[in-house]
Design a protein that fits this description.
Pfam families: NTP_transf_5. InterPro entries: NTP_transf_5. This is Nucleotidyltransferase family protein. By secondary structure, the chain is an alpha+beta fold. The protein folds into two domains: 2-291, Beta Polymerase, domain 2 (2-Layer Sandwich); 302-371, no CATH class. The chain is 50% helix and 8% strand. It is built from 17 helices and six strands. The chain has helices at residues 2-9, 19-27, 35-44, 53-86, 96-104, 124-133, 180-186, 201-214, 220-233, 239-248, 252-265, 269-272, 302-310, 318-329, 333-339, 349-362, 368-371; strands spanning 91-94, 114-119, 148-155, 160-167, 188-189, 197-198. The strands form two sheets. A four-stranded mixed sheet has the order 1-2-4-3. A two-stranded antiparallel sheet has the order 5-6. A hairpin with a 7-residue loop joins strand 5 (188-189) and strand 6 (197-198). Helix 3 (35-44) crosses helix 4 and helix 8 packs antiparallel against helix 9. It is globular, with a radius of gyration of 21 Å. The protein starts with a helix and ends in a 10-residue tail after the last helix.
C-alpha cells in the first residue's frame, strides 16, 4: 500500500506495474476505508487509466458506496447544526463532511462514517437533549476520565448505525496543557451560522496530527489526512508557530513524532513543506508498518502492552507519562469495554481488570495475534 500512496501523492513517482500488486491492495483490509481517497487521487492526477481495469471498477464501486453514506451523514450533520443553531448551542464540527470539502475539495474524496462535534462543557446537557430529540441515544455512561460521549442513531433506509461523538475536550485529562477555551477563542463562525464555528488551518492541522497519534497511525487514512493538508496548505503551513503552540500545550513530542513519522514514510513532503527538524527527531519511533490494520485494543497481548509502554516517550512531562502508565495498567471503563469487545461496564472495575489480565496472561507468548492479525475495517474516528 505504501508504494501506491507514495506514487499517488508524488506525481514524479511511477505507479506500480505488477497486476498482482493491485489485487493485494484490494485484499488489504485497510484499503476499504481509503478507497474514496485512492479513487480521488488517481482521477485528480489523470492516472486511473494506468491501473488494471478490475482495480478501477472495484475502487469505483467502493467509492460510490462511501459517497452515498457520506451524503447521508452530511444531511444528518445539517440537521444537527440547524438544531444547535436554533438553540444557541456553540459547536465546532471536526473532520467529517466539512473537512472533506475544505481540504480534499469534495465530499466524495474522503469517506466519512461518523461525526465528531466539540461542545462547550457548560452546554453539554443542552446538547445531549438536542441530539436525543433527533433520534440519537447512548448506552455508554458518562466517564470523567474520557473527553467525549458516544451516541448512536440507526438509519433504516441505509441500514446504517451512525455514530456521533460529542466532545467537551480533545485530549484526556492530565495528558496536556491544552486550554479548550483557547480553542474556542480562535474559532470563527462558519459561513451562514452564528453558533457553528470552524478552526483555523493551523489549529485543525494540529488536531489532525494529534488524532493520528491517538490512533497510533494504525490506518493509512491518518497519514492521508495529514499529507492532504500539507499539500493543500503548502508553505503557508507555519511549522515554527505550530511547534510553539505544541510547546505551550505540552504536546510537542507527540506533534514532532507524528510529523517525523509521516515525513519519513513520504519523503517528497520535504519539498512541499520543509520540516524544520533534525533527522534525529524521529530516530526512536515506536511505529512500524505492521501496525497498519491492527486495532490497539483488538487483542490485549503483552507485545502490544510493551509497544504501548514505548509510547510514553512521546509525552512531554513526567506527569503525563504517569497518567498514561496508570491508564495502561488500569484502564477506565470506556477503554476497557473497547479492549474487551463488550459493553459490560455494569461490572465492577475489579472484575473488568481481572478479565483483562486473564487475557493478557493467555496471550503472553502469542505474538502472532499482534503482528499478523488484521481487524475489520475501522470506523472513522
Amino acid at each position: 500500500m505504501l508504494k501506491l500512496l507514495r506514487a499517488l501523492f508524488n506525481p514524479q513517482s511511477p505507479l506500480p506495474k505488477e497486476v498482482a500488486y493491485y489485487q493485494q491492495v484490494l485484499d488489504d483490509s485497510s484499503s476499504w476505508l481509503i478507497s474514496s481517497q485512492l479513487y480521488f487521487l488517481l482521477k485528480k492526477e489523470h492516472r486511473l487509466h494506468l491501473t488494471p481495469l478490475f482495480f478501477q471498477k472495484t475502487l469505483k464501486v467502493r467509492s460510490m458506496h462511501h459517497m452515498i453514506i457520506s451524503a447521508m451523514i452530511a444531511k444528518e450533520m445539517e440537521r444537527l447544526l440547524a438544531c444547535f443553531e436554533r438553540l444557541d448551542i456553540n459547536v465546532i464540527p471536526f473532520k467529517g463532511p466539512f473537512f472533506a470539502k475544505k481540504y480534499f475539495g469534495s465530499l466524495s474524496a474522503r469517506s466519512t462514517s461518523d461525526l465528531d462535534i466539540l461542545i462547550r462543557p457548560q452546554q453539554m446537557n443542552a446538547a445531549v437533549e438536542a441530539i436525543q430529540s433527533l433520534g440519537f441515544s447512548s448506552d455508554v455512561k458518562y466517564e470523567p476520565e474520557h473527553f467525549h460521549q458516544v451516541f448512536h442513531k440507526f438509519i433504516p433506509t441505509y441500514h446504517f448505525d451512525l455514530c456521533l461523538e460529542l466532545h467537551w475536550h480533545v485530549l484526556r485529562k492530565e495528558t496536556s496543557s491544552l486550554n479548550i477555551d483557547q480553542v474556542w477563542a480562535t474559532a470563527v463562525p462558519l459561513a451562514g451560522y452564528q453558533h457553528v464555528m470552524e478552526l483555523s488551518d493551523l489549529r485543525m492541522f494540529y488536531l489532525i496530527c494529534l488524532h493520528g497519534w491517538n490512533h497510533e497511525f494504525n490506518n493509512w487514512k491518518y497519514f492521508i489526512d495529514i499529507i492532504q493538508m500539507i499539500h493543500h496548505l503548502g508553505r503557508e503551513l507555519d511549522y515554527p508557530e505550530l511547534f510553539d503552540l505544541a510547546r505551550r500545550e505540552r504536546t510537542y513530542r507527540r506533534i514532532v513524532h507524528s510529523l517525523s513519522l509521516v515525513y519519513k514514510a513520504f519523503p517528497h513532503l520535504h519539498e512541499t513543506a520543509p520540516l524544520p527538524l533534525p533527522q534525529s527527531a524521529g530516530k526512536h519511533l515506536w511505529w512500524s508498518e505492521r501496525i497498519i490494520g491492527t486495532d490497539r485494543g483488538s487483542e490485549p497481548t503483552w507485545p502490544m502492552f510493551v509497544r504501548r509502554m514505548r509510547q510514553m516517550d512521546d509525552y512531554d512531562t513526567l506527569q503525563q507519562r504517569w497518567t498514561f502508565f496508570k491508564r495502561e495498567i488500569l484502564p477506565d471503563p470506556v477503554t476497557m469495554s473497547r479492549i474487551m469487545h463488550s459493553t459490560g461496564q455494569q461490572q465492577s472495575r475489579f472484575v473488568q481488570y481481572f478479565w483483562l489480565y486473564v487475557h493478557r496472561f493467555i496471550n503472553l507468548f502469542d505474538t502472532q495475534k499482534f503482528t499478523l492479525k488484521k481487524r475489520p475495517p475501522e470506523r472513522e474516528k
